[in-house]
Amino acid sequence: MSTLSERPQRAVVGLPLPHESAALHVTGEALYTDDLVVRTRDVLHAWPVQSPHAHARITALDVQPAYDVPGVVRVLTADDLPGTNDAGVKHDEPLFPNEAMFHGHAICWVLGETLEAARLGAKAVQVEYEPLPSLVTVREAIAADSFQGTGRHLESGDVETAFAQAAHVFRGEFEFAGQEHFYLETHAALALVDEAGQIFVQSSTQHPSETQEIVAHVLGVPSHAVTVQCLRMGGGFGGKEMQPHGFAAIAALGATLTGRPVRLRLNRTQDMTMSGKRHGFHSEWRAGFDDDGHLVALDATLTADGGWSLDLSEPVLARAMCHIDNGYWIPNVRVDGRIAKTNKTSQTAFRGFGGPQGMIVVEDLLGRCAPLLGYDAMELRRRNLYQSHHATPYGQPVRHAERLEACWSQVLEIGDVERRRTEIEQFNASHLHTKRALAMTPVKFGISFNLTAFNQAGALVHVYKDGSVLINHGGTEMGQGLHTKMLQVAATSLGVPLARVRLAPTRTDKVPNTSATAASSGADLNGAAIKNACEQIRERLAQVAGGKLGISPHDVRFTDGAVSGLYGDSLRWEDVVHAAYHQRVQLWAAGFYRTEGLHWDPAAMHGEPFKYFAYGVAAAEVEVDGFTGSYTLRRVDIVHDVGDSLSPLIDVGQIEGGFVQGAGWLTLEDLRWDESDGPNRGRVATQAASTYKLPSFSEMPEVFNVRLLEKAHEEGAVYGSKAVGEPPLMLAFSVREALRQAAAAFGPAGTSVDLGSPATPEAVYWALDRARSHPAAEGLNGQADGQAHGRVDGQVDGQVDGQVDGRLDGIERDGVRSPVKLSGV
Amino acid sequence: MSTTIPDRRVSAVKVNGKDLAFDGVAVHTTLLDWLRDRGLTGAKEGCAEGECGACSVLVARPGIDTATEWTAVNACLLPAAALDGQEVITAEGLGSSTALHPVQQELAVRGGSQCGFCTPGFVCSMAAEYYRPGRTASSADRTTPAADRTSASADRTAAAGGGCDHEHGPNGFDLHALSGNLCRCTGYRPIRDAAYALGGPEADDALAARTSTPPPPPAPTRLEVAGAEFLRPAGLDEILELLADRPDAQIVAGSTDLGVEVNIRGVRAPLVVAVDRLSELREFTFGADETTGAVGRGRNQISIGAALTLSEIERLLAGRVPLLAQMFPQFASRLIRNGATIGGNLGTASPIGDTPPALLALDASLVLASSRGERVVPLADYFTGYRQTLKAPDELIRTILIPLPLATTTAFHKIAKRRLDDISSVAVGYSVEVVDGVVDSARIGLGGVAATPLRARATEDALTGRPWTEKTVREAAAVLAGEGTPMDDHRASASYRSAMLGQSLLRFYAQNLAAEGVSA
Predict the structure, then answer these.
(1) A184, A628, A630: residue with CB nearest B184
(2) Which of A470, A448, A596 is nearest to A522 (CA)?
(3) pTM of the entire predicted model
(4) ipTM beyond 0.90?
């Protein structure tokens, strides 16, 4: 076992420090890409010409009128490209298209002395379109057989036999929406060309190396001619993993052609109409249970709505398929996955990266089936949790599965769940128009990039003669606190006070060939690389110090700026550094890390793609108003496993923020596209903050308790920690399930509720209205012209004749071998 | 062009205590862009429509309890020229990374920033509340800690003044001060904790001291750039003369609507006329003291100047009109209410504005002024079509009149996806008078269900003269569900809107059973 996870005494990791840039954030001194414009002379501003059609051939492009607009300097079109007309790595994203593939697709770009000039210039550009048939919904794509990339199949156990023997079989269909990242900072790039023709691009990017690669191939130059820097991002959430490249390339192309700095910053409307989002999915499933409520078989087909180009859809789909089990052991599983091609933005990475889309299928089906099985949903979930001897459907042992049970028990305890459930029952019995519910859901999330090659990282650590330390690594800061953790890792590893260490902005000329800061892996990978570099330096310094102290280098300790043996004299860090310099000892090092022990066969969907699993459990209590369907999130209790935390304040912030963002996806954020045949077909209907509502203070849980799982050391990860960026987002299923249960409480006991996603007040209203309009409901008001979301067009198998009671709200009971248990029906 | 406006070009704005000259500012340049061009990049553009608050800054505005109040506004919406001669504080002006302001300190140490992009805006909104006169621990006494709550009303949004327990800190901090700021990273808990941990300003706090002297007076302004003009005339008469000459003039007060048109839709009006600081449009009287005798201002009414902001009106009314007290916290955000005027909300005549349904229920009238004189128009007659009104191009809304006494049973219901800072799918205002168990009068104003705000006349008729019972209400609710011509859009389906109308009356009845002493 490696020493990677061993934590020394008096470590700087583990201290609850605020974000390293907090003082700059609160004073407005922190610089983001577009803040650099005012510090740069003679900047040109870019504005796109966007397609007004979801799908159209471009038959003519006349840019001349733009040049008649005062202040317009240049119009960038495909004719200007010195290199490849391609903004992606899959070679299916032309930077300047000759066919508009979605409403809002940028056809060409106008550069102006002012943003206003560029805007007016773009308005003057004449484009002739020949509209083509378009596919806007995933159902349309399925019907038209419009798919892209490679479909996948995952199978384990004996699925058909399991279904044949299952006591209860249900089938359903469920379509759920995507999510807009809505990082507060929109996409931005600022490109300059130096005297030797080297391109320097400041970009708000999670993946500087890939931005560099794309800029280079668009310009037709080698990668060494392009440097990309990211100071920090005003949020990324996956939306800046692949999407920044084309925008950076436009700025770089403009700078190359004009010799002047070019700034490209999308306004919110442009960002929302041009950049990719979380994939919405369509799913069809069949689930078998035994009489004890164990999920014994699952057969599902997942169709990801990929949008117009492939982007990251394949790995997103793979992660969705690998997370359809969430925290539940299902012995017999078959999942088919495919990627629809539609005339929408190119859907992309978003915190969770397919994981949420897989998990929602199983959480939805458990929530819908529990009443039909006669089980309390909480009990049904708990009895299906993974145990430590289980393996996932793709063959990876579920190491530390006991932590799921530990989190569950602790949430029950700190959340005082049993007492509150009793109170909720009493409340509901005495309130006709208001109902409450509490739901608990687990998370098991695999950590590592599914693509094994990405699981590597580099770092560059300098120790200067005065003892000060400068670190550089390949990860980017988007608010997740990566840089804070990296400073803590370096200070711990070198045994110096935190104030000795400074961190330089992420640049491709410092650390090359980096992976995206994504998959929650930033601290795992870059932390290990920094630690590796620091240890190289420390070992060299130990030689020097050992000589001066007259002890073996193996016995030299570095603690808090002091260098000493196990006892006796102590040297000052800066004196040891100074001596080392004069002994001509190298005081800097490049660090490297590759995650060990991963193997994955993407064709077979089998192997051990993850270094470990992150676990957590949440309990959410909601209150729903029966008049409107509006609701409040009364209380949330979370216990989450972050290993031994590198930085507890940061980690709690990630858990809380991820949870609320997940709750936003599941309840409030209503991403709509114009699916009509009207003139705006394919347009994002919610393309502004006024129509696409993010969670605000009113969505924050009124009581919000987050605890980190204790004694959670993770072997084989840096200082025993675990990744935290993505997993907590999926704890928010507890909110959706609580809403489902509260809606059901308006109806008779045992009501199975179909709930749309997102569960907006309107969706909750229709759900509760259907519940209280249930034939068994008495004396309650309401008409049942509800709008079921997961409608099933009941092709029920032959053996189910007459099972009318098997269908409730778009869920089918299929092949029933035992009586339906529906109390109250 | 009218010659009554002083030929005075815009000069300077005092930003963070220093006069910054207006160089090269264009008529439609926003305060945000202007600040950023001057290197003050703390304020950010997150949405350009006053929804996210990343651009929030503080402006010295006339106070109600003190001479000046530091008022947080959306810099992305205001034309920079509207700030001529005014005082502005940005996050950079509150403190520096080596000398943090108390608000900055609390946010920084508690994990209140992650990516940091929204943070300067939060800092400014929070600072405004930090300096708010009357923010004291005692103002939180009416609340109980969240953990002690045993029951939550289904209608918490309608609690008077938004005074919901978990939305006020032990230090009197009103969380609604942050309702116009979005954070995508933190989930808000550490920001709330920072807000609730704030003490009061120190004795030597310069910004606190500044509140005891008046803000800069409005500066008559004329800016003419590239064929467009921005004018701030000195008085109402000049404006009315100007409107008579230039019916194409775009009137602007808080610019919360025009700013969106400028930023998102590229609207560039040739002439913008600012009216927000005109004293003639900022008069306020409540009932019996009124003796001015001007047209339309009788003794038994409330008279509200059209250029008063919603925040100011909320403070001036101080809960005396319960229906409006329910509406204010649900009207957009504090940042918007600090800029948006009641006249502006009626002038834009949006079918989904929040004041029309409330004012229709209150039987309000408008005083329209022009160089031809003044006239009083009932609000119920004012809206003539989608964003069309009886107001002539040369007329200006001067005053909103609400007759007294108020009905005893009133409510404002707003249906939206998000509880704070959202646009109505449906809004309903109720004024119902029940005498001896019989509905004596009923006025119901509706928004979001037709091309204009409207009165629910058929429902009113179905209630009036009938016993205030569940049977009456159920029958009337069915009528209300059929009012208007709701449509499907991204906010809600037509069927949900109709259902919400009917449900609204049932909810109104359920909430007022106890008050009316009628058994269920």
Answers:
(1) A184
(2) A448
(3) 0.94
(4) yes
